[in-house]
Design a protein that fits this description.
heterodimer; A: mainly alpha; 2 domains; B: D-Maltodextrin-Binding Protein, domain 2; D-Maltodextrin-Binding Protein, domain 2; 28% strand
């Protein structure tokens, strides 16, 4: 036993050097097998026809840019993100700051996550009860509007996204706020800073680290709204809520694997670039 | 060095993990030998269907209702015809014979109806002795079965009785929980099936035994479509999945014959009776089917236990035509096993999108099916992506005079022929002479509007609501709604809606308020649902004519599809002759076209293209299409012509339709076999077919959905058109 202990002590430096790779290995293996290798296959497929496998160069890319359905889906997805993301970040931050100052609300932290725990099928049922022609909203307002078939559908989707994600984002903000040292805030107060000044000059800069994570997670969550739309309106919903996932889903059904591959490559590039850009911004490398 | 070795191994493991493969076993799996094969037993009498098959050791009897039994003394290898009815028997039975059973010795038991609440139940022994069963005299109908020891089992209400075949001695056995409908027994054990399960009765100890879970599950799952053959403590179970040997109260049953490889799995043939012949090693089986065929199952030890290759056929929904095709093909090619995979059935609760996604995954992974049934699949997309094999070679190999080549070529696109329909139907309209010469919807609308002026009350045409009108008239129009470049033809769809609205308004202006009991609500294809029922959700012209006679007497016009010349056509012609009217092709935007069904394609990624080609070729052969009871008119011309041959020497009464037209008085319509002229005129219509009426499902559904709202006046036709265009433009743009 003593010998073994001495051996470990003698080789401690070497173990430290290699241990990190050993701990990383399972995760790396998983990512390689389930993400990098399939993605590599998708990249290759994007230059070939879907089933016959003929090499077509950039033809698939060219066809995709000419595809009006794809352009509409990209437009709707970007519009959705541009509307939802700022709203989500602002509302949840505001609520987090308010709750942070009122400790009695903090004990209900778990409840804020409740919307995330509700299955999509249940949300869909509620949507239908609320927004169908014979639904609760129409009965209350004595109207006969097909909310999911008109431009209202987009705002219903935005509302649903915010309702589902605000709680979770709020908890993330709260965690960030808890990490800000009380001494700094008190020092600012002693220096005569008002509440608003200390929020913008002390709290917000200290939340920069959390903000990056929250933005990326919220961005990725925005793509999950597809489930509800699909369950309510099927593969071809009202055109304002026709998102990228709809077109991917339909392409898959119709064996359009070539278009789907190109779409996936472009989406991955876009999201990847966006995340890198955000990271650089947050790190202060880009002024 | 050690570290390098560790790294090397780590690298090798990673590579194996990434590529997802281990060392493939070079050991060849030894193929087990031995399998049951199906043989037809030649019977001395043709076109006679017996009511039961009974057995006593190697003596087998096929019981004929009229006493002309067929018997075999050599274990079912050959049969002789015998007459075994006594004069007394023939004198005693009244024309109203309700139920009858006969054992292998020739003893009979029967139930006859005398008058209300009065029945006679008698045993006629083989020695020409008749015994009246007084015990049952006030009881009504008895379900009768034969035990293998020769005694009879009678089921009456919930009671089960045993009856001695020679003395008529009767013994009450037990009362079941539900209403029993089937019994099977040997000298030791009796099995009685009711809706709750199977009751097991020990005849030796005269006591009910504990129920068996597996047998109970069987009755629920098979819903009466099974046979049992008691065999001591074991029982042979015959279901659509195959023939099994099961030891009572055990956990599993042994499959002896795979039902999908022979007639056992053929849903068009009901089981009548079964016999087991002991041969030493492997027993032989005789199964008698409702179509009059007696098939023998013999073990062949030289065949491999599993067929050499497996062909996978995929359809989104169950199709009766395909089910028959697979059974016939398997019998013809026992070396090929055919697996029928159904995307959506009552068990899996899948949606069409789910089913299509699963199929796409399989195709993308290179493990797709070999044969695709294109009826619900996105044909254009699959063809465009190269998922389907070109069938030009099969098309060129066939003799054009042998097929309705105008229909085959109707599904050809600019890029070639990738699917061939197995059957088709013709949308037709019946009525007085005013319908002749009408081929457009606007002319039909004019006709109905003028008819409405003359007849302000009552039904004019074969639909009762907006959706019905759209679905009915789309049968001869929908093929022109999408242009060649893949875009929606707004003008054609708009014109369709305008004309159908005129027709709908004319019909509804004087339509009776009470809800009618129309034929289509209870229409059942019998051999499985297919495209016409699911896709069009409307009914055939035979039912449309029946509604015009029965439900809406005086309705001047009726329309629907003519699906099967063997059955529909004689009835429809009989109805037309009764009404003294005529029929012609249904007017529409795509006038002169037919609806195709059971569209077979070969998947381009199939690893069994040779077998798949063989399957498709067999599907279109006269041999199969003549023998099968297909939904629709067979694409094989000879098979269609064979249906024109009258089954009788003279064109006698084919059937009768009894309609309660007046209170207490039934109208009887005698249906005669159609004349040569009738067939000639039908064939002339088929020969003039210019193509097929096919429309993408999503476009079709959008037109029906929003068209319905327009017809009902909820939205204008302009609004409906905008919505249709909007809803399909994404789909078409993708």
């Amino acid at each position: 036993m003593k010998k073994a202990y001495n051996y470990i002590l003698r080789n401690k430096a070497g173990l430290n050097r290699n241990a990190k790779f050993l701990f990383l290995l399972p995760g790396l293996l998983g990512i390689t097998i389930f993400i990098f290798v399939p993605f590599g296959d998708v990249v290759i497929r994007s230059f070939h026809t879907s089933l016959t496998g003929e090499f077509v160069g950039l033809n698939n890319y060219k066809n995709l840019f000419q595809n009006t359905a794809f352009r509409l889906a990209v437009h709707n997805t970007i519009r959705f993100i541009m509307v939802c993301l700022p709203l989500l970040l602002l509302i949840s931050l505001l609520l987090a700051v308010m709750i942070n100052g009122a400790p009695k609300w903090e004990k209900y932290k778990d409840m804020y996550l409740l919307p995330m725990a509700i299955p999509a099928a249940t949300i869909v049922l509620v949507w239908k009860m609320l927004f169908e022609k014979q639904g609760f909203l129409n009965k209350t307002m004595e109207t006969h509007i097909d909310f999911m078939g008109t431009e209202y559908a987009f705002w219903i989707l935005v509302g649903s996204y915010l309702w589902k994600n605000i709680g979770f984002t709020l908890v993330l903000w709260l965690a960030g706020l808890k990490n800000i040292s009380r001494e700094i805030l008190e020092a600012a107060k002693v220096d005569g800073a008002t509440g608003i000044q200390s929020f913008f000059c002390v709290t917000l800069p200290n939340l920069k680290g959390s903000m990056y994570t929250i933005v990326v997670i919220s961005l990725l969550n925005s793509f999950k709204s597809f489930r509800e739309v699909f369950l309510v309106s099927g593969a071809y919903p009202q055109e304002d809520i026709y998102l990228l996932q709809h077109i991917f889903n339909n392409w898959f059904t119709n064996l359009d694997f070539d278009k789907m591959s190109v779409g996936s490559v472009l989406s991955a590039l876009f999201i990847g670039s966006l995340c890198m850009l955000l990271q650089k911004l947050w790190n202060g490398e880009v002024e | 060095m050690k570290r390098r070795i560790q790294r090397f191994f780590l690298f090798v493991i990673m590579i194996f993990l990434i590529t997802g493969c281990g060392l493939e076993s070079v050991e060849q799996k030894e193929t087990a030998l031995g399998r049951y094969v199906e043989e037809t037993v030649e019977l001395p009498v043709q076109n006679v269907t017996c009511i039961s098959l009974v057995q006593k050791d190697s003596f087998i009897r096929l019981v004929d209702f009229n006493g002309q039994d067929l018997v075999s003394t050599d274990g079912g290898k050959s049969f002789d015809k015998i007459e075994n009815l006594s004069d007394e028997y023939e004198n005693d039975i009244t024309p109203v014979l309700l139920s009858m059973a006969e054992n292998a010795d020739g003893d009979r038991i029967l139930t006859t109806f005398l008058e209300l609440n009065s029945y006679t139940h008698m045993v006629f022994t083989k020695n020409e002795q008749s015994i009246m069963l007084d015990k049952f005299s006030t009881m009504d109908f008895l379900s009768l079965f034969v035990s293998r020891d020769g005694s009879f089992i009678a089921l009456q209400d919930k009671n089960v009785y045993w009856i001695d075949s020679t003395t008529g001695e009767c013994q009450f056995l037990f009362e079941s929980q539900g209403y029993p409908y089937y019994a099977a027994s040997d000298e030791k054990m009796l099995y009685v099936a009711d809706e709750s399960g199977i009751w097991i009765y020990d005849l030796e100890s005269s006591e009910l035994k504990q129920q068996d879970t597996l047998l109970n599950d069987l009755t629920i799952k098979e819903a009466g479509d099974f046979l049992l053959y008691p065999y001591g403590e074991e029982v042979y179970i015959l279901t659509r999945e195959g023939l099994y040997l099961y030891e009572l109260y055990s956990e599993s049953k042994t499959r002896l014959i795979d039902g999908s490889l022979c007639s056992i799995g053929d849903i068009t043939k009901n089981y009548v009776g079964m016999a087991v012949i002991e041969t030493g090693n492997n027993a032989e089986f005789l199964i008698y089917y409702s179509d009059g065929s007696l098939l023998r199952y013999v073990y062949d030890s030289t065949l491999s236990s599993e067929p050499e290759s497996v062909l996978r056929v995929y359809g989104v929904y169950e199709d009766g035509n395909v089910r028959q095709l697979i059974n016939a093909f398997q019998k013809e090619h026992p070396e090929i096993s055919v697996k029928y995979e159904i995307g959506i059935d009552s068990d899996n609760g899948m949606t069409l999108d789910d089913a299509l996604k699963n199929l796409s995954t399989e195709i993308a992974a290179g493990s797709g099916p070999d044969i695709l049934l294109m009826d619900y699949l996105p044909y254009e997309s699959y063809m465009g992506k190269g998922a389907l094999m070109e069938l030009e070679e099969i098309r060129n190999a066939i003799d054009e005079s042998e097929y309705f080549i105008n229909v085959v070529d109707g599904v050809r696109t600019e890029s070639g022929l990738y699917t061939i329909p197995l059957t088709f139907t013709i949308p037709v309209i019946g009525g007085d002479a005013s319908i002749l010469g009408i081929d457009t919807l606007s002319e039909l609308a004019d006709l109905l509007e003028s008819e409405r002026k003359e007849k302000p009350e009552g039904s004019l045409f074969s639909f009762v609501d907006a959706k019905g009108a759209l679905k009915l008239l789309s049968q001869s129009s929908m093929g022109v709604w999408v242009q060649e470049d893949g875009t929606l033809d707004r003008k054609m769809v708009e014109d369709f809606l305008i004309q159908v609205k005129r027709i709908y308004d004319a019909q509804m202006a004087g339509f009776p308020n009470e809800e009618p009991q129309l034929q289509y609500t209870s229409w059942n294809w019998g051999t499985g649902e297919n495209l016409f029922v699911r896709y069009f959700d409307s009914y055939g012209v035979r039912d449309a004519a029946e509604d015009a006679i029965l439900e809406f007497p005086g309705q001047p016009f009726y329309a629907g599809y003519l699906s099967n010349s063997k059955d529909d056509f004689p009835y429809f012609m009989g109805q037309l002759k009764y009404l003294e009217e005529d029929y012609t092709l249904m007017p529409g935007q795509n006038y002169g076209t037919v609806l195709v069904s059971t569209l077979l394609s070969i998947c381009n990624t199939s690893g069994n293209k040779e077998e798949a080609t063989l399957f498709v070729e067999y599907a279109f052969s006269e041999e199969f299409q003549s023998a099968a009871f297909l939904n629709g008119i067979p694409i094989n011309r000879s098979a269609h012509s064979n249906r024109e041959i009258c089954p009788h020497d003279t064109r006698m009464v084919y059937s009768m339709l009894i309609y309660p037209l007046q209170e207490g008085v039934d109208e009887i319509i005698e249906i005669y076999w159609p004349t040569d002229l009738d067939f000639y005129l039908l064939n002339a219509k088929i020969e003039n077919i210019s193509g097929v009426n096919y429309c993408d499902t999503r476009v079709y559904e959008a037109v029906i959905k929003y068209g319905e709202a327009a017809l009902q006046g909820e939205i204008s036709i302009e609004e409906a058109m905008n919505t249709i265009e909007k809803s399909v433009q994404l789909y078409l743009a993708e």
